[in-house]
Amino acid sequence: MNYVILLCSLVLSTLGSVLLLKKKSHKRLSMLLALVLNASLLGTLTWISYRMSAEATVFGIGQTNVYELIFAIPILTWFNFIILQFVPSTEME
Known about the structure:
The protein is mainly α. Helices cover 78% and strands 0% of the residues.
């Protein structure tokens, strides 16, 4: 389930940042959007999966695989930064 969440977060943040880059032609703003989208999506989903998991509430977050989503935030953001390097920042009409 975590892999599906990570893939959806990568796709959503990439689409959002590429669309912002195409519209505004401002690469740093689109990189910031990718970071904010990844952090908010994965942070919220980590909290939800922690609250839903009885094992995580009894034994703690370190004994389950819930923490993988938090550790994936910088990795997915780095992938987004690499993808944005190959997107031309000129506005297409």
